[in-house]
Amino acid sequence: MIIMKKSDKLIYWAPRVVALAFTAFLALFSLDIFDGHYGFWGTVVGLLMHNIPVFVLMIIIALAWRREWVGALGFFLAGLLYLGLVLASALKNPLEFYMLSYSLIIAGPAFLVGGLFLLNWRRRSISSKMRESG
């Protein structure tokens, strides 16, 4: 039986909890669909379309639960993709450049979660090597 220290538990659970909170935060943005008058099926389709990023991140979280490198890579790529899309949109449309910093409200937590998963993965791989050698 492996006994986990408090710091190990924190490093294990932090990326998972923050990732779930972040996806719940993203899901809140889909609630604006209820402002329109789309009818039942239009609202259902709108909710599904708005939540595609949430569904993708939930799949990444499920895969990352045991394979932390998937979470690190997935959330880093999600943050980069979002920043790339915002930058591409900013280059097409006349947008104040400082507004790009607002995109860090979305990309920043994605990078944080990716970093937490990376830390957890590195910690786990180091401790497994130590157990094998000693």
Entry summary:
With 134 residues, this protein is mainly alpha-helical.
Provide an overview of this structure:
With 134 residues, the chain is mainly alpha-helical. It has helices spanning 6-28, 39-50, 52-64, 68-92, 104-133. Helix 4 (68-92) runs antiparallel to helix 5 (104-133).
Uncertain runs with pLDDT below 50, 5 residues or more?
Answer: none
User: From the helix content, strand content and strand pairing, which structural class follows?
Assistant: mainly alpha
| Major β-sheet profile | none
* Count, helices: 5
Q: Helix share of residues?
A: over 70%
> What is the radius of gyration?
18 Å
Q: List SSEs in N-to-C order.
A: HHHHH
Summed over residues and divided by their number, the pLDDT gives a mean of: 88
Beta-strand segment tally: 0
- Supply the number of structural domains: 1
**What is the 3D form?**
globular
Distance between the termini: 16 Å
% residues in beta strands: under 5%
